[in-house]
User: What shape does this take?
Amino acid sequence: MTKIQRIADYLADTDNLPKVYAAVVCIIAVIGLCTVPFLTYHDDQLYPKSLNPDSSLNPYDRGGVPFTEPAQIVAQYPENSPAIGYVTAYLTPASWFLANTTLYLGTTIVGHPGGILDEILYYTRGLDTIVEASIFFAAFAVASFLYRRSRQ
Amino acid sequence: MFEQILLTLPFGDIVHYLSGYTVVLFAFAAMFVILAVISLPEKPVDIVFGTDGYYTKEIPVDLMKFQRFMAIACGIATIGAITTGDVFNFTLFAAFIGILNIGIVAAVKNKHVLDAAFSYGLVVMMATVPLFAGAAIIAATCGTLSIWELAGTGPAPLVARLLILVGVLGEGMAPFYIGKAEITRAPGAPYILMIHVSSLLLFLRVVEILLTV
Assistant: This one.
């Protein structure tokens, strides 16, 4: 076999597909790691994160009073989010208790019901959250269909 | 490329839009979604060689319904990937398409199909790493994820675009036609076709994004 025949023979086997793809990803990752020194961090980030270790809502402490005084949240297109900032400061009684007793409420943003309603996650970039949940639902739909059929 | 925007649909910071280019892709995807909604699956006929005998492959109703659901969802995810105006949102839709492509063939009882689908599943899982890494590098180096804004800030780093390209290749299985040829041996034609359509349209869309950002 010539060299090109051998390569084509290797690629024709479906089992080798993940290996080939993993090798390609590794090559590009190595190139990427080599170019990291040339990448410059853009200081003017659209979604800035301010760390304030003294606040129990760290790093989601954006100020504001719920429903009366909007918090400071930067949006790419503010005209598309007219009610931005009114909800972020709201805490449920359970969250209020946690925020007043511990310093780590901000680390449990999804860990308990009624955590901080981060408006970047749920309002300005809400469609991302919807698509993420849809990916999970699709994966669960496949798994549950196969599981139920295997029991029949 | 952005002078000829026909329609915008804002979801907060994520603005979906149709340009003169993507409206063609949108029409194509919508056509196949409608086809998946209204059509019944094909029944492949195998002729027994050398005789008059033949047999048809029946597709169970529950499998047909499941494949149809997955195919329609895949078409809608493809429309989302085509119309989105946000890099991270695009990567999410690409990952969504990868999962749904596996879902379309996951329930087919055929060893060759499932073997190929398993290999493809591994590729899809690996592809999420470069895909989201590329989006993260774009966010860090350009400060924004909106394609409109990125079009004005100068080119994104080459490595970020390369990572997104490789990620989409894995999700859409674009160059791995050997895997696809095995997968499309599964019966159920209009639904199986959605695997081809989604990866083709995803690839056409990522070319536009990579030339713009």
Summary: Chain A has two domains: 3-38, 48-152. Chain A touches chain B through 47 residues (CB under 8 Å). The longest helix of chain A spans residues 126-151.
